[in-house]
Amino acid sequence: MLYLVRRLATTIPILIGISLLAFLLSVISPGDPAVEALSMSGISEPTSQEIAAKREELGLNDSLPVQYGRWLGKAVQGDLGVSYMTKEAVSGEIIRRLPVTLSLSLLAVLFAVGFGIPLGMLMALKKNTWLDQAGRFLALILVSIPGFWLAISLITLFSEKLGWLPTSGYGTWQHLIMPAMVLACGTSAVLMRLTRAALMEALNQNYILTARAKGLREPSILSFHALRNSLIPLITVIGIYFGSILGGSVIVEVIFALPGIGMFAMDAIFRRDYPVIQGYVVFTGLVYVVFNLLVDFSYAWIHPQVKLGVKLK
């Protein structure tokens, strides 16, 4: 319990820093938020009186500390402001688009885990053979492929030539396959190499030697003994990866025209919709912090003998 309280307390400065960064985006960005808000309301050439009235309405005439305090107070209550583009609450817009990004993130993690961990296990089982060498070479290739190039290549192959998958948009689970493959590519390579390294270390432990002495087969030892005791580094990568995808799938969503949070944020950047940009930064930062906490707390669940907050000697 003490570790839980201490760990939660350490996230407070991080969250304050994230909120400060989000707020400063509207301050350091070029242009006047009042002018941008008026232009998205249909007033392309606002007068000085209209600009002054809008600045007063948005509270931009107050000092920066006062503006930040007011904005932070509302953000803590879930009020991230109103979008200039849609005239709707930013928090509501994010929640409305969250299912698309969440579905994409879950499928990408499923692909990365389903591809990376089994291949890593095979590489460990066949260490120093041609299969191991081929797996390491494949991991190097996967982690080196640029995401945008892979996305274009998949669209060309599976959509234009074979006609198996839709090019873009969202409506069915088929629309998520290629975007998820792009997101999963690099992480699957990381999981391959990490699984191999973790299993190679675990296979030299005494309990593995005991299992072999009992006559257990090598695949069984890998799956039920070595892998379980190698889960902590794998869970760390998977948890952080899922959090980063959930908050940072902008490029993939834009390429495949998925109406998720990333696409919404990119539209906001191009149109200088400051409340949306601020809300996106807060959301992505919060997601990343939450998943880091979940990863930490999962260690004791994976290995009950691991005590949270106690370093092993």
UniProtKB/TrEMBL annotation:
GO terms for cellular component: plasma membrane. One of its GO terms (molecular function) is nickel cation transmembrane transporter activity. The chain crosses the membrane at residues 12-31, 104-125, 137-158, 170-191, 231-257, 277-302. It is found in: Cell membrane. It is a multi-pass membrane protein. The keyword Flavoprotein does not apply. The keyword Cell inner membrane does not apply. CDD domains: TM_PBP2. Keywords: Cell membrane, Ion transport, Membrane, Nickel, Nickel transport, Transmembrane, Transmembrane helix, Transport. Residues 98-299 form the ABC transmembrane type-1 domain. PROSITE patterns: ABC_TM1 (PS50928). It comes from the Bacteria. The complex is composed of two ATP-binding proteins (NikD and NikE), two transmembrane proteins (NikB and NikC) and a solute-binding protein (NikA). Belongs to the binding-protein-dependent transport system permease family. OppBC subfamily. This is Nickel import system permease protein NikB.
